[in-house]
Structures are given as structure tokens and as C-alpha cells.
Amino acid sequence: MSRPIDDTHRLDLTSWVESAQEPGTDFPIQNLPYGVFRAPGDSRDHIGVAIGDKILDLARCRYQLLLKDLRGDVQFVSAADTLNPLMDLGVNHWQSLRNRISALLTEPGMKSRVEPCLFEADEVEMRLPAAIGDYTDFYASLEHATHIGSLFRPDNPLLPNYKWIPIGYHGRSSSVVVSGTPIRRPSGQRKGPDDHEPHFEPCQMLDYELELGFFVGGPGNKLGDPIAIEDAENHIFGVCLLNDWSARDLQAWEYQPLGPFLAKSFATSISPWVVTLEALAPYRCAPRSRPAGDPEPLSYLQVGDGSQAGLDLELEVDLVTGRMRRREEGPHRVSQSRFRSMYWTMSQMLTHHASNGCNMRTGDLLGSGTISGEERDAMGCLLEITRRGAEPLVLADGDERSMLEDGDEVILTGRCAREGFATIGFGECRGRIQSAGAHG
Ligand code: CA
After folding, report:
1. Residues 6+ apart with CB under 8 A from 42
2. What is the SS3 assignment for 172?
3. 135-434, what's its fold?
4. How many whole angstroms from 179 Cα to the centroid of ligand 1?
5. Are 177 and 241 contacting, i.e. CB atoms less than 8 angstroms apart?
6. What's the rounded mean pLDDT across residues 379-386?
7. Rounded-to-integer distance, Cα 175 and Cα 250, Å
8. How far apart are CA 90 and CA 64, in angstroms?
9. Which segments of 7-68 does DSSP mark as H helices, in order?
10. C-alpha 276 – ligand 1 centre gap (Å)
11. CB contact at 8 A, 3 and 92
């Protein structure tokens, strides 16, 4: 079920693109994530592959006949302007394209033909990687659910369904934006504890949520047909960083009885690079073992002993305030956490989503839910860190934050490391808060 480790992951593999060998790069030759970019002066979007500080233009590779012995449909999708047609093809084709790109960027004899297909990454505009049909957000961190629950129900933080069902809600795909897009502070109905009635005004409790997004690909399931847990990863193309911006005061007033609505749908940011499950093969791990006394998942959600359904991914949240930017200070590290601690795996979330026969489609985006550990410096949103604002976060320059202020920029990063393998990164997912009255 999981993807194989092969020659494309070898630690001693090097690229003739020199920046791919620089220590600390997110994009060594072993990564090869896909994104969509627009080159300066171009009117079309192209699919690109990140390599060091460069981007390989797949459409140009096709025109240069560098993909010519791949199957026709693989060549065809390489010249598309979204990742959807590539996501649609399925595991075998994803593997063959990865093998080819790896060869193009490693074989010294290819350099003269491939070099004209490279762009400087900092000279292009990154776009949304896919046309996202549906967006669903889960709630798969036990620690996050427990911390949030304890703020509202100190005696009974976890609701009884949590350990049986991967909890989720249907989000809004139209407001998913690529990293770097400004985030306008939303307005909405809010009602303070002392207010007699609600007011419509700018959100005063604007928060971020550190999450992993994963894209559905491969053959979709027909309406009515569930996806078996053993088959789930064949329906997952790759993953990205995701920030589920949240208006906590709007959420508190609107969320009962049907769950989040306008508190979430004003914006969701994702990183531009989609790291494929092929690239992630070396960093898979056993899923988190359930604490003693917890129920076993129902059989349709059981992943089996020895499964590699987990993912060992380290994540970090950094904050740059307006004041820090004016003083040209570096970002403040707010938290670090690990995806391997999630209570539910990606395949459990996807299988549960389709278990009622709901058809999943190529390009659908699923969010993991906020990724939190036990400790304060591993919590994935300010609501948890500040205990709903009661214990503000103190920044390195002495400034304090209960929630986000205008001008604040949140930066999510992630990387996978394992001894004997390259360290690969996810790039960045950034968003800066604009005032409610900002234009454009
Ligand atoms: Ca969320």
C-alpha cells in the first residue's frame, strides 16, 4: 500500500543543479515536489518541480522532447496548467514521471538540454497547485482536541465520539489561497460575554491553525463505493502545509448546532509545493499507538500491525509582527510539533470520508486538523497556546499576543529527516494579516 523506497531516494544522489546540494535546502534531488507557477511575462501557468533554488518547467521539458518515451498521457499532463490531470493518472504514472525527472536532473549528460527549462524560483509567481473541488477539514490531533475541549468543558474535554470517528467538517474551497496571499481580517457577528446582543464588526480573535493538507488523486471512487483502508493511499497524491485561519469570536457565536461556518470560510492558506507520497516513502512510520484503554478502531478503519501509515514530519510555526518587520528582526518561533503524533492517519481520514459512499474527486483537499503536542511550545494555534487569550504569548522583543494583530505574518514550515536519507522540506506557507478596511 505505501510507496517503495528506491534509487530516487539515495542519499548519495546529486544533481548538476548545484543549489540542490546546499545544506538546509528544502528541495534536494530526493524531494522533487510539484507546483504551478507563472514565469515573468508569461500569460500561462506551467507545472514546475522545485530543485534547489530553481524550478524545472515541465511544459518546456515536454516541448524539448525530454519526456518523449513516457506514455502519451504522462507527457500530455506535464503541459497542463494545474496538477489535476497529473493527480488523476495514478500511482504507476506518478512513479514513472518522478523517475524521469530524477534522471533529467542527475545525469551530467542531460545538463545542456535541461538547463534551458529552469527558472529562478525567486523570479516566478507561485499559483495554487490545483483546482480544488471540495475542501474538508479534520480534527485528528488528540492533544489539540483535548486542549480545546478543556477550555470549554474542563470536566469533560473529549466528546465520546472522538476515539471512534475521525471528526471533520466541510470547508470552503473557493477561499483556499496560495502562500503569500494577504489575509483580510474578516468581519462578522460576534457576541462578547457581557454583550446583550451580537454586533457585526471586525473579528477581534483572529487565529491561525497549523495543519497538513493532502490532495486526493488517482482513480476516484464512484458515488456509493467506499474506499477500502488498504487502498486509501492509492488515492492520495501528495501533501502540503495548510493554515486554517480561524475567527474565534465569530466561531464561538455561530458554531452550535451545525459547526464552523463563516469563522473558517474567509481564507485557508496552503504552501505552493505538493510533496508526493513517492518522495515521502523514507519518512513513513508506524501510526501512533493508542493509549491503553482506548477502543480499537472499527474494522473499516484498522490499518493493521506493522503498517507505515504514519508520517514523521516536523512542523514549525513562526511569527513576524509589524514591529519586528520595521526593526528588521528575524521571526519568532512560536511552536514545533510532529505529525506522527496524530491520533488518526491520512488513510483513516480518507477512508472514513468515503465510507458512506461519498465520492472523492481528484484535486479535493483534506486538512488534518491542528497539529499539536502536549506542551505549550508544541501547540498549533494561539487559542491553545494562550488558553483563549488568558495567558498571552510573550515574544522575544517583549511584545505580547493573545491573538493575531494586523500586520502579523504567520509562517509555517515542515521537514522530514531520517538517518541515512536526505532531509527534505516543504517550503513555506505564509500569510500576513491586513486590516478589515484594507482594499485589494
Ligand atoms: Ca482546522
Report:
1. none
2. coil
3. Fumarylacetoacetate hydrolase; domain 2 (3.90.850)
4. 17
5. no
6. 98
7. 17
8. 25
9. 58-63
10. 22
11. no
Q: Which part of the chain has CATH 2.30.30.230?
A: 7-127
8 Å CB contact between 137 and 169 = yes
Residues classed as catalytic:
144
Amino acid at 228: A
- pLDDT band for position 153 (cuts 50, 70, 90): confident
In angstroms, the CA 133 to CA 160 distance is 31
What value, to the nearest 5°, has the Cα angle with vertex 135 and ends 172 and 252?
A: 50
DSSP-derived pairing of the beta strands 199-202 and 187-190 = antiparallel
CA distance 169 to 137: 6
Q: How far is the CA of 72 from the centre of ligand 1 (A)?
A: 39
Q: How far is the CA of 90 from the centre of ligand 1 (A)?
A: 28
Closest CA to 241 of 47, 410, 51: 410
Its pTM stands at 0.97
Give DSSP secondary structure letters for 310-321.
Answer: EE--EEEEEEE-
Q: What is the pLDDT of residues 295-325, one digit of tens each?
A: 999 999 998 766 899 999 999 999 999 999 9
Nearest by Cα to 248 from 91, 53, 382, 426: 382
What's residue 366's pLDDT?
A: 98
Q: How far apart are CA 405 and CA 408, in angstroms?
A: 6
* Spatial CA neighbour of 54 closest among 15, 23, 110: 15
Distance 260 CA to ligand 1 centre (A): 9
- Distance from the alpha carbon of residue 209 to the mean position of ligand 1, in angstroms: 6
Number of H helices, E strands in the chain: 10, 26
Residues 19 and 119: beta-carbon distance below 8 Å? no
Q: What's the fold here for domain 7-127?
A: SH3 type barrels. (2.30.30)
Q: Where in the chain is the domain with CATH 3.90.850.10?
A: 135-434
Distance of CA 60 to CAs 54, 99, 226, 274, 378, Å? 14, 18, 39, 20, 43
C-alpha to C-alpha distance for 303 and 298, rounded to whole angstroms = 10
Cα–Cα distance for residue pair 239/365, rounded to 1 Å: 9
**How many angstroms from the chain centroid is the CA of residue 207?**
17
3-state secondary structure of 21: helix
Q: How far apart are CA 434 and CA 36, in angstroms?
A: 25
DSSP state of 274: B
DSSP per position, 43-55: SS-EEEEEETTEE
